[in-house]
Structures are given as structure tokens and as C-alpha cells.
Design brief:
The chain is of the alpha/beta class. The chain is built from 17 helices and 20 strands. Strands 7-6-5-4-3-2-1-8 form an eight-stranded parallel sheet. Helix 6 runs parallel beside helix 10, helix 12 crosses helix 13 and helix 12 packs antiparallel against helix 17.
């Protein structure tokens, strides 16, 4: 498996901005792609000089709006820009563009002759910004009929199955003279595991490039790609782990697990693979050879029906957050309960929850693990949920009380207010003031004596936490719960303590 080159996409308005970015990330990248369509009009006149100033192999790209770019002036103007940038080739090849990106339907004989004469390699690209491409092999062969170009296919998947198909198709290829990319958050595995796709290169951009219109492509910045995912070290021996859920926004698990692999000098990588349906995640994991993965909302309960061997606590809890492959069988575990209880007891400075009245907000997969942990630690709880039947089903397993998560339950919350545990997704990524949309307990007036534990950790202070803290309560988020359950997952995946 040859390592894919790292191509750094430049979206500055000036050549000076782009050169400063190259200098900032030079140690992390192999190639720079100059996106001329992002440059100010006056700057486009000096593009020819860029390769000699950059001191690194460069790709010349002038992307049309229909292909996800910003160039709108028409094909005649674009052709003139290409000609200007490729003209007057220097005998010193490093002073010329090493690559030029021409779309599949863009054929200008004079420009193509110039690339051959100047030893500039053509990347022949096709972009579908809305739909997937299924016939990868057939399309690649048609795009590179001459055998002298590098065909590139980039598409927007509709589901993780489209990404799985991309990996399956790539497994039939025997060289790395192509570039295959699934764009958007679901396509992130195609960027991290680019070498597994036998790609010639993968694309990355600066963190602030999202403001320049690349956010929908889900580029990974060069530092994260190299230092967190250790992109340059991925090869045939690398074990693959990961995390799935939907929409899986803002997870810190890759940093936690990949840092552990680095610390223990393990040949492993942990990747996100968002899946709207759990069956898609299982299909992906099976087809690309994932050895273990974390599961987050909304799939924690569906795991049980997709496992060969179920750990006893999982059977009691009724939810799992961890799958491990052993001898071609899937084993499921739950590390949420252990991680939560350790974090909660540290926060509350308690040895156990005996004689404590606990409110649990929510009745989903995370709440099931937390209710189990509260019960095992001797706490007495009331389950609050918008769907009362779900609250009842969870509460009756442990002899707990249950009530609607609604204003009429304020007095019941008061009775179980030693510790209030928030397990829903409300408040995730929200920095707005507390309200019905981001605070599940918006109707309750804190006395200041409650301990409030929100399993959400992004943002660091959620709306319910901010409101409780203002009333004088001690508050805590789910950061250490994430870490502690992740440590246990790491051990289940690798057999080594974090």
C-alpha cells in the first residue's frame, strides 16, 4: 500500500495569503493546490510565478461554480487563465505547475499539448456535488483512456452505503493512479483512509478554510490529519477502529483513542463514520475491516440485535456503546455505566449513591446505562421522559419512580433533586440562553442545593448547567465520563490499559 500524497488546498484571496499558509503547514503536506477561482481578480495575473515561490509541487485548479468552485466568468476566460498560468515553461521543472486539474468535459487541445510538452500531469476530474457515483471502475477507465492522466472522482454520498461502495470498488484497482473522494461528513473515512483506496493524493485545507466555502466538503486540516490520525503511518498493518452515530457532530473520541495509540506506539487508527441507520454502520465496518467501534445516539439500543455475543451488563442495561470483533464474531459491551459512575462519584465526592435521591432526564440508550449505574451504586431515582411509556419501562426495571418530563412534574423533580442527571441531546452545541429547545428542565427553578450533571460536553457549559450554576448549584459536564468510558473501550479494543 503506497501512501497517498497530502494535497493542501489553498483558498486565499491573495498569493501572499496562500504562501503564508504553505509556510505554516509545510512540514505536514506534500503538494499545494492553488485554487485560482478563490483569488482576487488582480491576483490571477501573477499565478504563473506561484510554483517558484511555493517551493513545493503545485496543482493548478480553476474550479467552476457547477463543480463546487467560485469561477463564474465563463469558459473562454477560464481558458485564458489556464494558458497564462501554464505558458513560458521553465527548464527547471520545479518552477512550473506539476499538475493541472481539467474537468472531464473540458478538452482544449492546445492546453493538453502544453501539459505534455511541459511535463505537467493532468488530473482529469469529475465532481457531483449532490449525488453519489456508483460505477467507479467503469468511469475511471473512460476518464483515463490515454493512460497519461490521473482520473479523479469526487461525489456527495447520500448514505454511508455509498462510501462503503467506494471502498469496495477501490479494492478492485491495482495501482494508485487515481483519486477517489466521498465528500461531506459521511465521506471523512475516504480522506483518512485514502491509502486504503489506493489514492494518489488526498485533500486537506486550513482550519479557517471552512469560512471560504469548504465546510460542506469536510476537509480535515493538515495538523489533525497528521498528528491525530497519523495519516502518513497508515498501511496494510494498521488496525482500524472508530465511532458511529447520527449525526455524529463534534465528537472528541478520535482524539482520545488516537492519542492512546500514539502513546503505546500501536499501528492503529480510530475514525468517525456517521451512519443514519445502524445496518449501514455494520455493513461499512464489515466491508472495510474495522476491528472495534464506539456507538453513540441513536444506535445504542439497536446494537443488541446485531451482535453475536452480548456482555451480561448489556443485557441488563438494554443498550451498548461498544462493539469488538473477535474471531469473526461481534461482541457488544457497555462502558457508559462504568465511565459515568466514576465521573459522577468524583464530582459529588461520594463513595456511592446510597440515600441519594436522583433525577434522570431522558430514557434513551445513555439513560439506560446511567439508571443501571445509579441502581448498582444504591441510589433511588425517578426517570423523567417526554414519552411516559419509555420512562415507565426503564423505571420499573429497578423499582424507580417515573414521571413526564414536563412542567407538571416540577414537584417530583424537587423530591429527587439531590443529583439531577441530564442524558438527552438538548443543549448539545448550544450556547443560547436556557429555553424549551435546549434545556429539558427549563420549567424547574433550581434552589442552589442540587448537583447537576449533564452528560453533554460540547459546549463545556450547557444551557441547563449555566442556569443551575447561576442559582448556586455545583455543575459538571460529560467530559470525564467520555474519557473514562473511552479508556475502557480502548482496553476492550486493544487488550492494553489506556
Amino acid at each position: 500500500m503506497e501512501r497517498s500524497q497530502i494535497c493542501f488546498t489553498l483558498t486565499g484571496k491573495t498569493l501572499k495569503e496562500d504562501l503564508e499558509l504553505i509556510d505554516k503547514y509545510r512540514s505536514y503536506i506534500d503538494i499545494a493546490e492553488l485554487r485560482v477561482d478563490y483569488l482576487d481578480h488582480d491576483e490571477r495575473l501573477y499565478v504563473r510565478k506561484f510554483p517558484s515561490m511555493a517551493g513545493i509541487p503545485c496543482v493548478l485548479t480553476i474550479r467552476r461554480e457547477v463543480d463546487g468552485g467560485k469561477f463564474v466568468e465563463g469558459e473562454a476566460s477560464r481558458t485564458v487563465l489556464f494558458a497564462r498560468a501554464l505558458s513560458f515553461a521553465d527548464e527547471e521543472k520545479t518552477r512550473n505547475f506539476a499538475y493541472v486539474d481539467f474537468e472531464e468535459d473540458y478538452h482544449i487541445p492546445s492546453l493538453e499539448d502544453a501539459t505534455l510538452a511541459f511535463d505537467t500531469k493532468v488530473i482529469r476530474s469529475f465532481h457531483d456535488m449532490k449525488n453519489p457515483v456508483s460505477n467507479i471502475i467503469t468511469r475511471l477507465s473512460k476518464m483515463n483512456a490515454s493512460g497519461f492522466e490521473i482520473p479523479k472522482i469526487a461525489f456527495m454520498p447520500h448514505s454511508l452505503d455509498d462510501v462503503t461502495n467506494l471502498f469496495q470498488e477501490a479494492s478492485k484497482l491495482h495501482d494508485n493512479n487515481h483519486i477517489l473522494i466521498a465528500m461531506g461528513p459521511m465521506g471523512v473515512p475516504s480522506r483518512i483512509l485514502s491509502s486504503k483506496l489506493k489514492n494518489f493524493m488526498t485533500y486537506t485545507s486550513a482550519p479557517d478554510a471552512s469560512a471560504q466555502g469548504l465546510s460542506k466538503l469536510a476537509h480535515i486540516d493538515p495538523v489533525t490529519l497528521n498528528e491525530i490520525y497519523r495519516f502518513k503511518e497508515i498501511n496494510e498493518e494498521t488496525k482500524i477502529y472508530g465511532i458511529t452515530g447520527w449525526p455524529l457532530a463534534g465528537t472528541s473520541s478520535p482524539q482520545l483513542h488516537n492519542t492512546g495509540y500514539t502513546r503505546h506506539n500501536m499501528k492503529a487508527v480510530y475514525i468517525p463514520f456517521p451512519a443514519e441507520k445502524f445496518s449501514q454502520a455494520m455493513n461499512f465496518a464489515g466491508k472495510i475491516g474495522i476491528d472495534g467501534f464506539s456507538i453513540t445516539v441513536p444506535h445504542k439500543e439497536e446494537v443488541l440485535g446485531n451482535s453475536n455475543v452480548i456482555d451480561n451488563p448489556v443485557l441488563e442495561i438494554g443498550a451498548s456503546n461498544t462493539m469488538v470483533r473477535k474471531d469473526d464474531k461481534w461482541y457488544c459491551y457497555n462502558t457508559d455505566a462504568e465511565g459515568f459512575l466514576r465521573s459522577l462519584l468524583e464530582f459529588a465526592q461520594l463513595k456511592n449513591l446510597k440515600h441519594k435521591k436522583v433525577s434522570i432526564l431522558g430514557a434513551g440508550g445513555a439513560a439506560k446505562a446511567i439508571a443501571y449505574a445509579v441502581y448498582k451504586s444504591g441510589g433511588d431515582a425517578c426517570i423523567f421522559n417526554r414519552t411516559i411509556s419509555k420512562a415507565r419501562a426503564l423505571a420499573e426495571k429497578y423499582g424507580f419512580k417515573y414521571a413526564a418530563l414536563a412542567p407538571e412534574s416540577s414537584s417530583m423533580v424537587r423530591k429527587y433533586s439531590d443529583i439531577i442527571i441530564q442524558t438527552t441531546s438538548k443543549g448539545m452545541h448550544s450556547t443560547d440562553p436556557s429555553g424549551p429547545d435546549n434545556d429539558p428542565l427549563y420549567f424547574y427553578d433550581f434552589s442552589g442545593d442540587e448537583l447537576v450533571f449533564d452528560i453533554v460536553y460540547m459546549p463545556e457549559v450547557t444551557p441547563i448547567m449555566a442556569r443551575a450554576k447561576k442559582a448556586g448549584c455545583s455543575v459538571n459536564n460529560g467530559y470525564y465520563m467520555l474519557r473514562y468510558q473511552g479508556y475502557k473501550q480502548f482496553e476492550l479494543f486493544t487488550g492494553v490499559e489506556y
